[in-house]
Structures are given as C-alpha cells and as structure tokens.
Fold N-terminal domain of galactosyltransferase.
Amino acid sequence: MPPFKISVIVATYNWPEALRLCLLSLCTQTDPDYEIIVADDGSKEATKFVIDELAAKTCVPLTQVWQEDDGCRKTRIANHAIAASTGSYLIFIDGDCIAQPDFVAQHRKLAQKKFLITGSRILLSDKLSKALLTKQSWDFSEFKRQILTYRLQGDLNKFLQLIFKRGDGNWRHFKRFFWRRIKGCNMSCWKTDALAIGGFDENLVGWAHEDADFVFRLEHSGVTRKSGSWATEVIHLYHRVRDQSLGDASVARLKKKIQEMSQSLN
C-alpha cells in the first residue's frame, strides 16, 4: 500500500493528568508519519495548558479542537476533529488510555482499503493508575519490565498482549455485525469512509454507544470490521463508571437502526 498519513484523534474531558500520560505515549511512537488532534469536549484551562506544554516539546504535530461544555457531546467534537484532520487514515483513542510505542505502527500494518479496525484494552487497577498519574513522564520499557509483578498483584487484567503480537489474516475479520466488544478508545478507519457515512451520529449524547453506531454504519456501507486484538492494545487508566443513564435508550436506538437498515436490504 502506498504511504499514507495518519491522524490520531484523542477524546478528552477535564482529566489533564490522564491526558498528559496519553499524549506522552503518543508523542513517542515508532511510526514517523502521523499527527495528534485532541478532541476536547469543553475542558477547562488546565487541559489546554497540558496540550500547549507538550506541543512545544514534541516534533509531532499536536493540535486541539474545543467546544463549549454543554453536557457530553463526544460525537460532535469527534466530527470537528475529523474535519480538522489532515491524514487519510484516522485512529481514535481516549485521553484516559496510554498507547504502546508501536500503537500507530500496528494500526498502519493492519490498515486495508474498505476495512476498519476495533482494538481492545488492558485495564489497570485504581492503585496502579493513581501511581502512574503522579508521574510527569512515561517510560513504556520500565512499565513493561514490571508487568508480571503488576499482574500477580492484580493491577492488570491481562498482560500477554503487551509481549506477543500476532500478524494479519482472515481470522481477524468479523463475518457479521457484533455490537459488543467495540471500544471507541481503540478504533481506526479511513477518513473517506468516515465522511461517507457522515461521521458520528450527533443525536447520540452522553454514554450512548456512539462507537457501536459508528461501526455499524460503516459496516452497512460496505466496510469490513477487523479485530486489532494482539496488536494494538491500549492501557486503560482506572476511573469510576460514568453516567450510563442513556445506555438502555441508546441500545434500543441502535437495535432499531439495525432492524430498519436490514429491512431496507430485503
């Protein structure tokens, strides 16, 4: 495949300590051709300070798109970030996740025309997350040297994915839409495919399964979903579960959309 530029879109909201770790990990990627766009859903000045500070220190293009805080409107700010991106390929990650050094490179390896990738995450304990958040730097090699200890202490829910990487193949392809196991904190697709479906559905607000809806509409448009497991794992910092009051309604909305689109094909 000819060379292509990648835009990494980082979703964040008022957690600058976590965002610092996320951006530090993204600024030290092995891949040479990418940019970082922070999709900020109305954070206060502390978040902008972190972004500006790191932007001044890194050679990786790092910018911020921001909107007024009016409740959780992740879909809207994500679409603004897509519009602002200059890459032909998009990777989505959340600002409470830490990327491995080859995160961008692995997504590039798995990228194919008319495919999207959904990856997985490694969950950290509250204790380990708090310890990492006190640091002003990030060293993946140091973290990796201690992963067995972390696992034995219950600070990681899994760790082998940080050691062993599997290559590409048809075993990664999903044969049908399966809305579970879709993580918006680790997902990628071609920008043209995202624009063709109108990006994220901005009618979905709050904790609303906007990632599953996005994947479903991409698949419905003819894009095949590919698993990024055992290649692209992100390290997810612990936080309390956010408001999920809109979750049931969002699932019902998504199921209705699946049914209507399926009927339109008959």
User: Anything to note?
Assistant: The chain has one domain: 6-265. Strands lie at 6-12, 34-40, 62-66, 89-94, 97-99, 115-118, 121-123, 186-190, 224-227, 234-236.
